[in-house]
């Protein structure tokens, strides 16, 4: 949990810094659009009693949703945004010590789903898996599985 919250704080600091760079200041309405600080999740965790797994799940879901947002934004065709997201993910890995998407779980679930079905049917799945090709630190796919995912990506692109 602490490792996940360290990553959450890294994201918050990055997001706040970006808002400040654009607007010159960060207002309360801006803060309302950013994930809660890690201290809030620790407090929820401490007060959860036997429901602590729900708090952990909420943090993991935040990673999934945020990674999904990154995938969509990175593939909008706006190179400055795509570049900024790639740089954030690289900095995240270097500073926090793990891949953002590895905690999201969405990449592994999506890969398993398309490998089982033998096809990519949704554009969102395509973007999620395309990011997998750019990652070097995944441990959930074998080389053969990664090749199969790459083939499915090429097939989807050819449609």
**3D shape:** globular
Give the oligomer, counting copies of the same chain as homo and different chains as hetero: single chain
How would you sum up the major sheet? none
Mean pLDDT: 86
Query: How large is the count of helical segments?
Result: 9
- Through-space gap between termini: 42 Å
Question: Poorly predicted ranges (pLDDT <50, ≥5 residues)?
Answer: none
Helix percent band: over 70%
Radius of gyration: 17 Å
Estimated share of beta-strand residues: under 5%
SSE pattern:
HHHHHHHHH
Number of strands: 0
What structural class results from the helix and strand content? Answer: mainly alpha
Overview of the molecule:
With 159 residues, the chain is an all-alpha fold. Helix content is 76%, strand content 0%. The chain is built from nine helices and no strands. The chain has helices at residues 2-23, 28-31, 38-47, 52-74, 79-96, 100-104, 106-117, 123-134, 143-157. α4 packs across α8. The protein is globular, with a radius of gyration of 17 Å.
């Amino acid at each position: 949990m602490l490792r996940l919250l360290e990553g959450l704080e890294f994201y918050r600091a990055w997001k706040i810094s970006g808002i400040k760079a654009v607007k010159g200041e960060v207002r309360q309405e801006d803060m309302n659009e950013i994930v809660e600080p890690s201290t809030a999740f620790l407090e929820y965790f401490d007060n959860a009693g036997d429901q602590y797994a729900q708090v952990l799940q909420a943090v993991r879901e935040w990673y999934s949703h945020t990674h999904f947002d990154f995938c969509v934004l990175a593939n909008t065709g706006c190179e400055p945004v795509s570049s900024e997201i790639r740089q954030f993910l690289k900095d995240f890995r270097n500073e926090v010590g793990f891949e953002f998407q590895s905690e999201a779980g969405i990449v592994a679930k999506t890969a398993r789903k398309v490998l089982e079905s033998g096809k990519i049917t949704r554009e969102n799945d395509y973007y999620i898996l395309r990011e997998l090709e750019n990652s070097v630190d995944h441990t959930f796919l074998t080389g053969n599985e990664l090749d199969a995912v790459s083939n499915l990506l090429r097939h989807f692109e050819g449609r």
